[in-house]
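Protein: NlpC/P60 domain-containing protein
Species: Johnsonella ignava ATCC 51276
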Amino acid sequence: MWVSQVYQNAGLGYIGGNACDMYRNYTFTSDRSKLKVGMLVAVESSSSGSSAGLTYGHVGIYIGDGKVIDNIGRIRVTTLDDWIATFCKHHPVGFGFPPNVKK
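Structure follows.
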């Protein structure tokens, strides 16, 4: 998974799992005031329209200034508002750090 590789390449270890796993294991809030650069932005089941998203969710990384980087078959940067509007129609967004990330 792309997000796992990003954290591993940053020297933070491999976190593994799909977006649903990351949502369940590492996110702890949906409060935007607690959102920090480097946090996972995840949803347990995505409303993007893909069957994979419905089953496995979707995940990106918050990069600051209201922007998220993710992989939708290509790496892209989008606004947090657009990310939530696309992926979180039926399930709430979650924010959190994976293990080994300084908070």
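Remarks: Helices lie at 2-9, 19-26, 51-56, 80-87.
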